[in-house]
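G.,

No rush on this.
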Amino acid sequence: MVSRTTWAGFSIMAAFGGFVVLMLAGESILDPGGWRSAGLIGSWLVPLIVLCLLGYYRPEIGLPVLAVAALAPVAFGVLLLLDYDRWREFEDSVGPVSLVLSLVVDIGLACAGLHRPWAAGWLMLAVTIVPLMLAVIGAGEDWRRALTIGVALLPMVLSGALFVVAGRRRGTDTAGSPAIGVDRLADRAGGR
């Protein structure tokens, strides 16, 4: 059974994700228009749908796939760390790449979080916070701009935190397997 905290985390991510998806689709249709907009929308909507379906229907396969997909926003964060001005200029010309990367992975993780909230929550927090912190560090004196843009990510952080709390309260990631904490690892290592 899915707890209220899990549903709260999922609802926040679904509402925020739905709003941003509609905004991105509308902007893509208005700005380039035509077939180019269809290609732009498809470039992030198809992976979003695939990750959501995989996370919800097959979380045992979906979580490792989502963990690999989580490398994309982190890699873009590393690019921002190395050359912030160049990659912000790139984002200004093509759109919010870092937001789209994080959003696609986080919405998929929210779907997986309905079954495995603890693991999905920690991955959501990593996918959202790590690229932001890399951008803030890479921005140097312009760190306020990077952090201001990061304020838009607060619903994703809140959703991830709710999933972590839900998984911790439940004590399990799935119905049959325990969420392994430090104390349980120590018990296993000691042979107890």
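When you get to it, here's the other one too:
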Amino acid sequence: MYSIKDLKEGPATFPTRMSNEIYQAWLNFAPDKKIPARNDIDPLSIPKKYISNVWIYEYVTELNTYRQTLAGQNIKDAWQETKNCPLISDFMDSESVESVMTRWKFIRETPAAAYYSVTTDDEFKYTERIYLPMCDKYGDVNYIFGCSIYERLRGTDAALPPLGKDPLLFKID
């Protein structure tokens, strides 16, 4: 479980180039707003090298779950997705769904930005993600915008150790 005490204060500074570039694109979607809306997204402001790794999930209140509303090709390939707009339970096991639900609820309700990286022995040898809240057209924070990399990037980012189980969290002011 996450709490306010887990949040880092001050401007968000993430450990990798990808996370900082995606965060900057998110900020640029609507610089006059605290949290951009889903319809503020400008795909041209997302660095081209990450566009196939971007995703958006919408919280579906009636089902108390998330539905994917956008997934780049690398995301679809990594999860072997065949359905359009799947629910997270369509491709995640129940333990992963519970973990994602807890993390994303905290990100939406706080609101917070989160970065996560881990090395595993299963499908993906290295995973790096950034999670950012987004509003619907009414101003309710019902979306999670993110970018996931499923391989170690080259250069200075490649030398960074993964964080492990707990994400790095920043309060959005």
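The helical segments are 17-29, 73-79, 94-109. The radius of gyration is 15 Å.

Enjoy the weekend,
O.
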